[in-house]
Protein backbone atom coordinates (compact mmCIF):
# COMPACT_ATOMS: atom_id res chain seq x y z
CA UNK A 1 0.00 0.00 0.00
CA UNK A 2 1.32 3.41 -0.92
CA UNK A 3 1.05 6.27 1.56
CA UNK A 4 0.66 9.79 0.23
CA UNK A 5 1.14 12.74 2.53
CA UNK A 6 -0.08 16.25 1.76
CA UNK A 7 0.10 19.55 3.56
CA UNK A 8 -2.65 20.37 6.02
CA UNK A 9 -3.63 23.48 4.02
CA UNK A 10 -4.02 21.44 0.81
CA UNK A 11 -6.08 18.83 2.66
CA UNK A 12 -8.38 21.48 4.17
CA UNK A 13 -8.81 23.09 0.75
CA UNK A 14 -9.72 19.73 -0.75
CA UNK A 15 -12.25 19.03 2.03
CA UNK A 16 -13.75 22.50 1.57
CA UNK A 17 -14.19 21.95 -2.18
CA UNK A 18 -15.69 18.52 -1.58
CA UNK A 19 -18.17 19.99 0.93
CA UNK A 20 -19.12 22.65 -1.64
CA UNK A 21 -19.68 19.95 -4.24
CA UNK A 22 -21.86 17.96 -1.83
CA UNK A 23 -23.90 21.08 -1.00
CA UNK A 24 -24.46 21.68 -4.73
CA UNK A 25 -25.64 18.11 -5.25
CA UNK A 26 -28.00 18.37 -2.27
CA UNK A 27 -29.46 21.60 -3.70
CA UNK A 28 -30.07 19.94 -7.07
CA UNK A 29 -31.66 16.97 -5.33
CA UNK A 30 -34.03 19.18 -3.35
CA UNK A 31 -35.04 21.09 -6.49
CA UNK A 32 -35.80 17.82 -8.24
CA UNK A 33 -37.75 16.40 -5.33
CA UNK A 34 -40.24 19.28 -5.56
CA UNK A 35 -41.61 17.52 -8.64
CA UNK A 36 -43.02 14.56 -6.77
CA UNK A 37 -44.18 11.53 -8.68
CA UNK A 38 -47.08 11.31 -6.23
CA UNK A 39 -48.54 14.30 -8.08
CA UNK A 40 -48.74 12.21 -11.26
CA UNK A 41 -51.43 9.68 -12.13
CA UNK A 42 -50.83 6.34 -13.81
CA UNK A 43 -52.99 4.82 -16.55
CA UNK A 44 -55.14 2.83 -14.12
CA UNK A 45 -55.96 5.96 -12.10
CA UNK A 46 -56.93 7.87 -15.25
CA UNK A 47 -59.09 5.03 -16.60
CA UNK A 48 -60.96 4.81 -13.31
CA UNK A 49 -61.44 8.57 -13.03
CA UNK A 50 -62.63 9.03 -16.61
CA UNK A 51 -64.51 5.70 -16.63
CA UNK A 52 -62.84 4.63 -19.87
CA UNK A 53 -61.01 1.56 -21.12
CA UNK A 54 -57.22 1.38 -21.51
CA UNK A 55 -57.73 1.35 -25.30
CA UNK A 56 -59.73 4.60 -25.17
CA UNK A 57 -56.99 6.10 -23.03
CA UNK A 58 -54.43 5.08 -25.64
CA UNK A 59 -56.55 6.74 -28.34
CA UNK A 60 -56.60 9.97 -26.30
CA UNK A 61 -52.80 9.81 -26.07
CA UNK A 62 -52.29 8.94 -29.74
CA UNK A 63 -54.57 11.76 -30.91
CA UNK A 64 -52.75 14.28 -28.73
CA UNK A 65 -55.82 15.13 -26.68
CA UNK A 66 -54.19 13.97 -23.43
CA UNK A 67 -50.59 14.83 -22.58
CA UNK A 68 -48.44 12.21 -20.89
CA UNK A 69 -44.91 11.34 -19.87
CA UNK A 70 -43.32 7.95 -20.16
CA UNK A 71 -40.68 6.77 -17.70
CA UNK A 72 -39.22 3.40 -18.63
CA UNK A 73 -42.33 1.57 -19.82
CA UNK A 74 -44.83 3.25 -17.49
CA UNK A 75 -47.02 6.15 -18.58
CA UNK A 76 -47.93 9.02 -16.25
CA UNK A 77 -50.37 11.91 -16.54
CA UNK A 78 -50.53 15.27 -14.77
CA UNK A 79 -53.78 15.66 -12.81
CA UNK A 80 -54.45 19.07 -14.39
CA UNK A 81 -54.30 17.51 -17.88
CA UNK A 82 -56.76 14.81 -16.83
CA UNK A 83 -59.05 17.39 -15.20
CA UNK A 84 -58.99 19.43 -18.41
CA UNK A 85 -60.29 16.50 -20.47
CA UNK A 86 -62.83 15.33 -17.86
CA UNK A 87 -65.69 17.63 -19.05
CA UNK A 88 -65.05 16.58 -22.65
CA UNK A 89 -65.33 12.91 -21.74
CA UNK A 90 -68.47 13.49 -19.65
CA UNK A 91 -70.08 15.34 -22.56
CA UNK A 92 -69.13 12.51 -24.93
CA UNK A 93 -70.63 9.88 -22.60
CA UNK A 94 -73.83 11.92 -22.27
CA UNK A 95 -74.03 12.20 -26.06
CA UNK A 96 -73.61 8.44 -26.45
CA UNK A 97 -76.29 7.82 -23.83
CA UNK A 98 -78.71 10.13 -25.68
CA UNK A 99 -77.99 8.40 -28.99
CA UNK A 100 -78.73 4.99 -27.45
CA UNK A 101 -81.99 6.24 -25.95
CA UNK A 102 -83.07 7.70 -29.28
CA UNK A 103 -82.17 4.51 -31.12
CA UNK A 104 -84.09 2.22 -28.75
CA UNK A 105 -86.67 4.53 -27.39
From TrEMBL:
Pfam families: HTH_17 (PF12728)
Superkingdom of source: Bacteria
Domain Helix-turn-helix positions: 40-84
Protein name: Helix-turn-helix domain protein
Organism: Paraprevotella clara
Amino acid sequence: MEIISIEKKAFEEMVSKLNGFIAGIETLYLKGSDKKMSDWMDSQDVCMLLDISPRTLQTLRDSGRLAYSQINHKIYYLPEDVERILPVMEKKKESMKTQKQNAYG
